[in-house]
Write a structure and sequence with these properties.
The chain is α/β, with parallel strands linked by helices. 29% of the residues lie in helices and 15% in strands. The chain is built from 12 helices and 9 strands. The chain has helices spanning 18-28, 110-118, 128-139, 152-163, 166-169, 231-237, 242-245, 262-273, 278-295, 311-322, 358-361, 382-392; strands at residues 89-93, 177-186, 191-199, 203-211, 218-224, 249-253, 299-308, 329-331, 371-373. Helix 9 (278-295) crosses helix 10. The protein starts with 17 loop residues before the first helix and ends with a helix. Residues 1-13 and 25-75 have low confidence and may be disordered.
Length: 394
């Protein structure tokens, strides 16, 4: 076991302001980017074609700043009717079962490629050219950001609409969730279970659940790791194994297609062209983990927190704005929801409709729930993190 205090800190794209610098550089580039504005007669210039304009329209607001309520029907076609418990969770014990993404977590994108078809009733598709225009508008500095404070409830509504995640949140506890345990072991300091979560929309992803040796119910934390990482690396190198020794259960979720490569670029573009986003997917998978913890008898529903690392923090910075069940949150990274990596590849956080709100998202002082903002990699803040969770989840 490697203690949290012994981990190695690396620099990750999106946590060093590199994309803000990219935007500043683009503003000074007189040539700018080719946004196809001179392509007369193309369907992308037709408002009725569904291609959108330079930026997706922001959600409408009332005079009080509240986002307009979505009109989607709660019955999304995948509601379970035979739920045996209030969370619609079915547990299966299948020792030796192997996750289909094992060994290829960051290239395992089949489930994500299928998502736009499964969620087609909620899609708002645009063309690739329209997406490129949105990107170029941000690069050129032509998209204003929001800095005036918005009430937390109103901001949550705006972010929900910007991510198009409302239909995933609605009725989530009525949607079947199968959780398969592939192994369970006990160490000298904690119990560990490998779990496979299977959902009708996002397919199957893995999680490691580490719990204290006592019966509980325990306070618990959900962790989202960073790019190139795995649940095992978070356990061993980011201090995940220390949590149960401090009396906290921890569920470390596997974040798929998180390699800052061509695969991540592909799924990000497909989601955006379909009117969805990878940030919505990351948020929804976190909620599935939360739902399972709420279902478990050895976890205290009133004492569940959230922690992110690197890109996991960028996604979780949104979740803490939307989900009141999380009582405390630790973040080590801020994003601007516009991140272009090597060779022009899009990183999953890139969501043009979210970009205008990034100053508000990153203003943790306005968070509706307690947030501990720590240096990247939790450097020097190990004791502070555990003290924070102990206090806030007591």
């Amino acid at each position: 076991m490697v203690a949290l205090s012994a981990m190695v800190t690396v620099t990750a794209a999106g946590c060093d302001g590199s994309n803000e610098q990219t935007i500043d550089n683009a503003r000074r580039d007189e040539g700018g980017g080719d946004d196809d504005d001179d392509d007369e007669g193309s369907e992308d210039d037709d408002p009725s074609s569904g291609s959108g304009g330079p930026m997706p329209a922001l959600p409408s607001e009332t005079a009080d700043g509240d986002a307009s309520a979505p009109d989607d029907d709660d019955d999304d076609g995948v509601i379970g009717t035979d739920c045996e418990n209030e969370y619609c969770v079915t547990e299966i014990d299948d020792p030796g079962a192997v996750w289909k993404c094992e060994g290829r977590q960051h290239s395992c994108m089949e489930d994500y490629l299928a998502f736009p078809s499964l969620a087609e009733p909620f899609a708002h598709p645009i063309s690739e050219a329209a997406l490129e225009r949105q990107i170029n508008e941000i690069l050129k500095g032509d998209v204003p950001t929001r800095t005036k404070a918005i009430a937390p409830e109103a901001l949550a509504g705006l972010l929900t609409d910007a991510m198009n995640v409302g239909f995933l949140r609605d009725g989530i506890n009525k949607r079947p969730l199968t959780v398969t345990q592939t192994y369970a072991i006990e160490t000298e300091t904690y119990r560990e279970r490998e779990l496979l979560f299977t959902d009708p929309y996002v397919g199957t992803f893995k999680g490691l659940l580490l719990t204290p040796l006592g019966d509980g119910p325990h306070p618990a934390v959900i962790a989202l790791h960073g790019h190139w990482d795995t649940p095992e690396s978070y356990r061993d190198f980011n201090g995940g194994a220390d949590f149960p020794q401090r009396g906290l259960a921890i569920l470390i979720l596997a974040v798929r297609v998180f390699g800052a490569d061509e695969n991540e670029d592909l799924v990000t573009r497909i989601m955006l062209r379909s009117g969805f986003s990878m940030m919505a997917i990351r948020h929804y998978e976190t909620l599935l983990g939360l739902r399972y913890l709420q279902y478990r008898e050895n976890v205290d529903n009133d004492r569940i927190g959230l922690i992110g690392h690197s890109g996991g923090s960028v996604a979780s910075n949104l979740t803490i704005r939307l989900e009141p069940a999380f009582r405390a949150y630790v973040s080590d990274c801020e994003g601007i929801y516009f991140n272009i990596g090597l060779d022009g590849l899009l990183i999953d956080e890139t969501t043009p409709a979210l970009y205008p709100f990034y100053p508000l998202i990153n203003d943790f002082a306005t968070s509706p729930r307690p947030v501990l903002d720590v240096p990247y990699g939790y450097a020097g803040e190990v004791d502070a993190i555990f003290a924070f969770f102990t206090d806030r989840l007591s």
